[in-house]
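Contributing new records

If you add data, match the layout below exactly. Sequence lines come first and carry their own label; structure lines follow with theirs. Keep one chain per record. Anything else will be rejected by the validation script.
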Amino acid sequence: MKWKYISCLMVVFLIAFACEKNEKRIDDFFVEFATVIKPAEQITFQLDNNKILIPKKLKDYSGKNGQRVVLNYTPLRGDTIKVNSVSDIFTGTVQESNAVDTLIKEPVKIQSVWVGGNYLNLILEIEYYNKTHVIGLFRDTQSSIINLHLTHSKDGDPPGYAKKLYASFSLSAIKSANVSPTPFRLHINTHSGVRVFELLVK
């Protein structure tokens, strides 16, 4: 009986050892919006909390200074990272309009809206077939407070399939030198009507 018990323990131990040996740990990774910093040949990425990340090796991406990206990375040591993937996203600035009611605002589906650093970040869903959609962000100059309106034109794109649209707009133009943080309203036309967000930029 004793030898049967020992044999049983040995079998369990071998099975456990085999499972542990075959188990492969997946590296931790993060996915964040970031800004390309490229004063010279060396590319770094600045997160919206102002932290600078230094890629250990960066293949197949040249980038340009100020470009906003979706960065998938694995931390290594200190501020050094391994870049798993990096994708450019629409990068824009706030423009002005004294006739925002005349702007094209075809509806979109909102997945996420937030302010990070000096940027308004958006993840939207659009119906895309084969034509490039045009978006923009306009400040209503007729308003006494800061009202921003997202514009979206399908440019005649026929019905197709749902596609994510990532966008990031610099808010430097609306930041007040005297008021910190600076409040503003964001208006986005959706399939169920216009949604208004009360936001702050620090």
